[in-house]
Amino acid sequence: KQEVTQIPAALSVPEGENLVLNCSFTDSAIYNLQWFRQDPGKGLTSLLLIQSSQREQTSGRLNASLDKSSGRSTLYIAASQPGDSATYLCAVRKSGANNLFFGTGTRLTVIP
Amino acid sequence: GAGVSQSPSNKVTEKGKDVELRCDPISGHTALYWYRQSLGQGLEFLIYFQGNSAPDKSGLPSDRFSAERTGGSVSTLTIQRTQQEDSAVYLCASSLDAGTDTQYFGPGTRLTVL
Question: Which of A41, B3, B32, B68 is the most buried (most CB within 10 A)?
Fold first, then answer.
């Protein structure tokens, strides 16, 4: 069974700092990996999707990398803002599977 | 266009009652997923629909859980004889197809079983 782990579970940083969120998965036979943010009481918003053949994806201040062989992905957030405060979830789609396997998330707080 | 919508947003029920949760996917999306997010746990997959194919029910936790998708669009998740451990946020997602596309999530239904 695919297991997805996210470290740290919670992170507080002052506004303006660059930060890295980590995601690891046990089965490297993945189809793609997706990063989401979840705001309290709301659904998930997709941030970036990386196909298994790709190494990274960028969107604005966000950059996600994927090292499939080592079972790791990172989400880099540049120049953090208070509006970035949310829970960030990493999800992996295994090859041959239809669903996503989610990590338990990292709760980010950006302090003004 | 409109995103994935779910109703109700909140549902409180008594143990033993049946509940129905509704999901309206993004128009044109052929793939639809149900997930559950319990307190202190990650999201877990429940069931998946793709077009007119037989659904993937491998994530349903018990036979009290069932889901259907009518006309390839709206989906209903039914929980019979609810138990307290069924309390969770139930999230629905859709994607253009089951291939490389992003899954788009609805706001969820928070179910509380008393």
Answer: B32
